[in-house]
Amino acid sequence: MQEDNVKTPSKLWAKPRSKWLLGIPIGAFLAFALGAIGLGTTNYVLHASSTTAFCYTCHSHENFIKPEYEASSHFANASGVRATCADCHLPHDNWFELVWTKMVVSLDVIPELAGKLDTAEKYEAHRADMAQTVWRHFKENDSKFCRSCHSIEAMDLAAQNRTSARRHSQAEENGQTCIDCHYGIVHKEPENATTLFDAIAAEFAEPSE
Ligand code: HEC
Ligand code: HEC
Ligand code: HEC
Ligand code: HEC
């Protein structure tokens, strides 16, 4: 019994009795090769659709998103580390979440073609709605996208001014996340940002007994 078991694997690769049996390894190889090409293409599409240039095909909006982003410290700073659109808006730690997000985002082709955001006036009219969607997302995921670059643990609190050092050292125990104190860092804040943000923060606050 034992001996047979040991021999089985090598038999599979031994010269097959019938040339038809060659089909098994060849089939397996073809399946693997096709799978690899398929995955390669998917990853290529995923990568190509994560560049700032791709976001600009719709969000080029010379008059609003671009100048706001390019004036922000996340576009250019003393350290020369740039945060791209995808760094702050797309998941990077979970392939399935990325694919899912892309499928949902591709539906934005419809409002885009309908010209939902094609002028500065229309953009302003929707800015608050869109910002609220993003804020909710950051509250839900504990500002995960910020944390792929920043972490409170890695902050040299002594090098920060006293107010920020105190806020950061207490943030965790107070249940506060980055977006609670740092919204509007790249884009212009929507009108009444404080009121709108506080309403979202209240939705997420633990009910006080
Ligand atoms: C096909 C055109 C198109 C492309 C490409 C595109 N967007 Fe959008 N995006 C839109 C439209 C239209 C909306 C408004 C959707 C709505 O509110 O109905 C939107 C909304 C958003 C919002 C607001 C939140 C929300 O879901 O409403 C964010 C953030 C965003 N896009 C980021 C990005 C990023 C980052 C990229 C590049 C990876 C990108 N978009 C590529 C058309 C596009
Ligand atoms: C791709 C990496 C990256 C991501 C993602 C990122 N940051 Fe930054 N952030 C930086 C760098 C680099 C600087 C500039 C550091 C310097 O040289 O001072 C910076 C600066 C800052 C500053 C200080 C300057 C300012 O504009 O006030 C704040 C606050 C900040 N980030 C908060 C955030 C928050 C909140 C998020 C999530 C919405 C975020 N960052 C996402 C890399 C990143
Ligand atoms: C309770 C409020 C609060 C929370 C929560 C908070 N911060 Fe801050 N942070 C501040 C204040 C206040 C400052 C100083 C003023 C400013 O730059 O906005 C600051 C400054 C900073 C700076 C600039 C530091 C410097 O000295 O150059 C960075 C970077 C930063 N915060 C990132 C973050 C990130 C990332 C998170 C989430 C992990 C976070 N903060 C959470 C209040 C907060
Ligand atoms: C450092 C992180 C960061 C970067 C980089 C960034 N965003 Fe955002 N984005 C945010 C946050 C946070 C919000 C929520 C509104 C706010 O706080 O300003 C937001 C909001 C938005 C909105 C909703 C409308 C609005 O004006 O609030 C759109 C659309 C958007 N981002 C697209 C983009 C595109 C396109 C790029 C690249 C050109 C980009 N973002 C770069 C963090 C970022």
Which helices and strands occur, and which strands form pairs?
Layout: H1 2-13, H2 23-48, H3 52-59, H4 65-71, H5 85-89, H6 95-106, H7 109-113, H8 120-140, H9 144-147, H10 162-171, H11 178-181, H12 193-204
Bound molecules: heme C (4 copies).
Q: Which spans have pLDDT < 50 for at least 5 consecutive residues?
A: 1-9
What hetero molecules are bound to the protein chains? Answer: heme C
Distance between the termini: 68 Å
Largest sheet geometry: none
The average pLDDT score comes to 83
Number of helical segments?
Answer: 12
**What general outline do the C-alpha atoms trace?**
extended
Q: How many discrete structural domains? A: 2
Q: Report strand %.
A: under 5%
Percent helix, as a range, is: 55-70%
Q: What structural class do helix, strand and pairing data support?
A: mainly alpha
Explain what the structure shows.
With about 210 residues, the protein is mainly α. The chain folds into 2 domains: about 20-50; about 60-205, no CATH class. The chain is built from 12 helices and no strands. The chain is extended. About 5% of the residues are buried. Mean pLDDT is about 85; it is low at about 1-10. It binds heme C (HEC) (4 copies). One heme C binds next to α3, α4, α5 and α8.
In short:
This protein is mainly alpha-helical and 209 residues long. The protein has twelve helices and no strands.
Descriptive labels:
mainly alpha, 209 residues, binds heme C, disordered N terminus, 2 domains, 12 helices, single chain
